[in-house]
């Protein structure tokens, strides 16, 4: 018969557990650093990925891009709206607009992205189009995003033509477009 006398050294066990916790934290930090610097391309890098904007996320994205323009420069987007012009725009510019409902009586406010296209004069005010383009930094009474249009096509007016104000709970991040594919 064998009898083992086991003696527990609590100081040694504490040191071992502490060492395991520190090693785990270092491994997790290393993984996070690796993913940050070698993971997917950042949003502001040139990419062939085109992110679609629809009526449910339109104003959130519009607000995020206006609030943090430098983060989104170079991003390609696709969305629809109607041609809207104001008197001081260039001949090759227009706002790709949507009507944002501002109260329960369906009073609206025109919102949208300023767009630049050599074929802008081919489209009349109020024409619904779908565009694909790249976000650039431009100037119109201050720094604003301008969509440099790569593709534009006329469409019929969609059923969900209204958009609504940005969410109260919305927190702008640079991953907004990245997560919306």
In total, the number of strands is 7
Order of helices and strands: HEHHEEEEEEH
Q: Looking at the chains present, what oligomeric state does this protein adopt? A: single chain
Q: Assign the CATH superfamily.
A: Nucleic acid-binding proteins
Helix content: 25-40%
Question: Judging from the principal axes of the Cα atoms, what is the shape?
Answer: elongated
**What class do helices, strands and sheet pairing give?**
alpha/beta
Question: Which terms would index this structure?
Answer:
OB fold (Dihydrolipoamide Acetyltransferase, E2P); 4 helices; five-stranded mixed beta barrel; 181 residues; alpha/beta
Explain what this protein looks like in three dimensions.
- It is a single chain.
- With 181 residues, the chain is of the alpha/beta class.
- The protein has a single domain, classed as Nucleic acid-binding proteins (OB fold (Dihydrolipoamide Acetyltransferase, E2P), Beta Barrel), CATH 2.40.50.
- Helices cover 26% and strands 31% of the residues.
- Strands 2-3-4-6-5 form a five-stranded mixed barrel.
- The termini are far apart.
């Amino acid at each position: 018969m064998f009898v083992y006398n086991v003696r527990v050294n609590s100081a040694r066990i504490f040191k071992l557990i502490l060492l395991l916790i520190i090693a785990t934290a270092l491994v997790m930090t290393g993984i996070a650093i690796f993913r940050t610097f070698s993971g997917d391309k950042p949003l502001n890098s040139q990419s062939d990925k085109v992110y679609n904007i629809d009526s449910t996320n339109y104003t959130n994205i519009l607000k995020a891009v206006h609030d943090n323009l430098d983060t989104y420069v170079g991003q390609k987007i696709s969305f629809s709206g109607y041609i809207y012009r104001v008197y001081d725009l260039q001949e090759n510019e227009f706002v790709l607009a949507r009507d944002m409902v501002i109260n329960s009586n369906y009073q609206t406010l025109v919102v949208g992205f300023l767009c630049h296209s050599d074929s802008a004069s081919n489209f009349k005010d109020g024409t619904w189009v779908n565009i694909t383009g790249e976000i650039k930094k431009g100037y119109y009474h201050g720094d604003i995003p301008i969509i440099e249009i790569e593709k534009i096509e006329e469409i019929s007016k969609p059923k969900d033509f209204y958009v609504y104000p940005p969410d109260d709970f919305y927190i702008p991040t640079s991953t907004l477009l990245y997560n919306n594919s």
